[in-house]
Design a protein that fits this description.
Largest sheet: 11 strands, mixed
Number of helices: 31
Distance between the termini: 88 Å
Strand content: 15-25%
Radius of gyration: 31 Å
Structural class: alpha/beta
Number of strands: 21
Length: about 700
């Protein structure tokens, strides 16, 4: 009779469900006596159990342990490896058969994988060693028994905590328990929004994120969010605040002192994520005329110091101020003094938006704008010298005619075209269904948000400011993001020379489709930019999940841009300008055209010539950036990125700021990793390459 090979013996040993159970029971409980094994496995016949154990001993998976004077069955190293392999296979089968998805902190649905659970147990719960195997097995058992398709991240956390209790792992349980509410209790707390917002901000954010306010969002919207196609900015606080408040400061103040405005800013902080102050120079100018007792420079210095304090309190993307540049000789001279004072004050305040109504008036300020850029002060230029006028409120571009004395941007909605394109590559019918669903969802979402704002008496609070409800208007922003990346996903063999034409054609068709819907058109503005910097991370994760699932090759991530539909991969200035102007001609919506400088910084004449050409070509929104690195320890600044301070050699306290646009004006360690990597790879303009490119523009 032929002797069986080791492979055949292994196959036979694992061919029985009872023998596999023996391995799992010993792994879970440690060495067991024969009688204990018999009891736990509910096997009545001693001969049957002895037969199974003999086969497992033959293949060296089980051995006898004689310590403490007792015969106990324990797993050999091969037995332990076999159990680990079987558990990994079990996890894979669970993932494939049940199609389980875990909803991450951004609302995206991640297909369940054993490795995901292990990462959560290690990184978030700090569970180590053999306890990981125990907890993982029990959690996967519960997931299979509950038989749900989707689990919120907080639901997975609760399942893990219940397993820790079940296995009497109290040290892990106590270390990971923070706070718990039943859903009705949470609702009661959140309904008392005013008192709730006064509680500790960190605890508040943890509670909101933990219980995930997605449950207040309609089911069809959840589907879009989970697939990474649609995203609501500040998702977990969507019901609590508006996205932004735009204040026309001369109207709002009505002759009051600027200090009243600063008190107003602290008040409105509770009502919105961001604030935009229009015509800020006019309120300063009018007040300085009335208060002749102060020198203009002294008056401006006091106001900017106060504004810096407000800015420091409200942090990064909360405020931006607009300075109106128009044909008024006295105001132009005042603007020059104002901007010069910013240079003298070591300005650390909010980013500045120059609303250019007159090219002639702006030409007189070229030298000051040049000095501001070299001082790393973030500046955005809005070219309102031609037919269509816009307001760059934070990074939301709105038609000026749509803005009242007080304008509330209720919500910022974001359509992530690259993810939609991935679905279109897989099945056009599904992608079309998603797009139609997005269109139908918007009106519903806008109405729901208005209900929440009414509950929060937002309009009534603002009415106290203005005293005139008719001067208040509400709108929403729909940002269509990642046009070029989506085009490259959709048309895998796209010729780069025709890329921009294809991008513009796709966007034009999409914009026309949105504009045909009167309800949405009346209540929202379409943009190609957003202030939600987390969308770098969200888009990256969504694409990675879906591309892996659908086996689709992705273009470089530099093609995803929060400020424009066009790629951040290297292009000549002439090509970029042509793309921006053609996009605006076709869709009547501008993108944000970024000018990122590096050393050697362009000479004044080249810098001025570039701005002049861009304004003459009717490039609508131009963001100026000259990045710098600042050491938090000694305060040293340098105009390049470096990991070590060249002045004091400190490493940890080193912080990078960059002022390309308001959403990016923050330390690099405060932004998603994928956004930081993209920033460090950017191609920038210096005096040498600008001199070469200027004649072609």
């Amino acid at each position: 009779m032929r002797k069986k090979t080791k492979t055949e013996l292994l196959a036979k040993a694992l061919s029985s469900e009872k023998r596999v159970k023996i391995l799992f029971v010993i792994d879970a409980h440690g060495p067991l006596r024969f009688s204990e094994l018999k009891e736990k496995l509910s096997i009545k016949s001693s001969g049957e159990l002895n037969y199974h154990l003999t086969l497992l001993k033959e293949v060296n998976m089980v051995d006898l342990d004689y310590s403490y004077g007792q015969r106990r069955y324990t797993l050999t190293p091969l037995g332990k490896e076999t159990v680990e392999l079987l558990k990994r296979l079990e996890g894979e089968l669970l993932k494939q058969e049940l199609g389980i998805y875990i909803i991450d902190k951004y609302g995206l649905a991640v297909k369940y994988d054993t490795s995901i659970l292990i990462d959560v147990l290690k990184d978030e719960f700090d569970i180590r060693g053999k306890h990981i195997r125990t907890v993982r097995a029990d959690v996967e058992q519960i997931l299979s028994e509950l038989d749900k398709a989707y689990y919120e991240k907080w639901e997975l956390d609760q399942i893990i905590l219940s397993v820790l209790l079940k296995n009497n792992l109290m040290n892990y349980f106590m270390k990971n328990t923070f706070v718990g509410f039943r859903k009705k209790e949470l609702d009661r707390i959140l309904n008392k929004k005013t008192s709730f917002t006064n509680t500790n901000e960190e605890i508040r954010n943890q509670v909101i994120a933990f219980y995930n306010l997605l449950y207040k969002i309609p089911g069809n919207v959840k589907t879009l969010i989970r697939n990474g196609i649609f995203y609501i900015s500040h998702l977990h606080e969507w019901t609590l605040k508006s996205e932004a408040i735009i204040l026309d400061t001369p109207y709002v103040m009505k002759g009051y002192h600027p200090l009243d405005l600063y008190n107003l800013l602290l008040f409105t902080k509770k009502l919105a994520h961001s604030l935009f102050l229009r015509k800020f120079n006019k309120i300063l100018y009018d007040t300085s005329i009335r208060q002749r007792k102060f020198q203009i420079e002294e008056f401006l210095a006091k106001n900017f110091r106060t504004l810096n304090l407000i800015w420091d309190d409200l942090k990064y993307e909360k405020i931006a101020v607009e300075i109106l540049i128009e044909d008024d000789s006295e105001l132009v001279e005042f603007d020059r003094i104002l901007l010069r004072q910013i240079l003298l004050e070591e300005y650390q305040g909010p980013p500045i938006v120059l609303n250019i109504k007159s090219k002639k008036a702006f030409r007189e300020l070229y030298d000051v704008v040049y000095d501001l850029a070299r001082k790393h002060i973030p500046i955005t230029l809005v070219n309102n010298t031609a037919k269509y006028n816009f307001i760059a409120a934070i990074s939301h571009i709105l038609r000026e005619e749509n803005c009242k004395d007080i304008t509330i941007i209720e919500s910022s909605y974001n359509l992530l075209l690259p993810s939609l394109a991935v679905f279109s590559r897989r099945d056009k019918a599904i992608a079309e269904d998603f797009l139609n669903n997005t269109l139908s969802c918007l009106d519903n979402l806008i109405n729901k948000k208005r209900e929440y704002l009414r509950e929060n008496v937002l309009l009534r609070k603002l009415q106290k400011i203005s005293g005139n409800l008719a001067s208040i208007d509400s709108t929403n922003v729909l940002s269509i993001l990642g046009g070029e990346m989506a085009t490259h996903v959709l048309l895998a063999d796209l010729n780069n020379k025709k890329s921009s034409t294809s991008v513009i054609r796709i966007l034009k068709n999409l914009v026309d489709r949105f504009r045909d819907l009167e309800k949405i058109g009346e209540k929202s503005n379409i943009c190609y930019s957003t202030s939600e910097i987390n969308l770098y991370e969200i888009n990256f994760r969504a694409l990675t999940y879906r591309a892996k699932e659908f086996n689709i090759q992705l273009p470089p991530f530099e093609e995803f841009n929060l400020l424009s539909p066009f790629s951040k991969t290297p292009q000549s200035l002439r090509e970029r300008v042509m793309n921006a102007t053609q996009l605006f001609r076709e869709t009547k919506i501008p993108d944000i055209f970024t000018l990122e400088f590096t050393d050697p910084f362009p000479a004044l004449e080249n810098f001025s010539e570039l701005l002049k050409k861009l304004l003459n070509l009717d490039v609508k929104v131009i963001s100026l950036s000259y990045d710098y690195t600042q050491c938090e320890y000694c305060g040293h600044k340098t105009s390049r990125y470096t990991d070590i301070c060249p002045n004091c050699l400190s490493v940890k306290p080193y912080v990078v700021h960059y002022g390309k646009i308001i959403i990016d004006y923050r330390p690099l360690n405060h932004i998603p990793k994928i956004a930081k990597e993209e920033y460090l790879r950017r191609n920038r303009i210096n005096d040498i390459n600008l001199r070469k490119e200027l004649p072609s523009i």
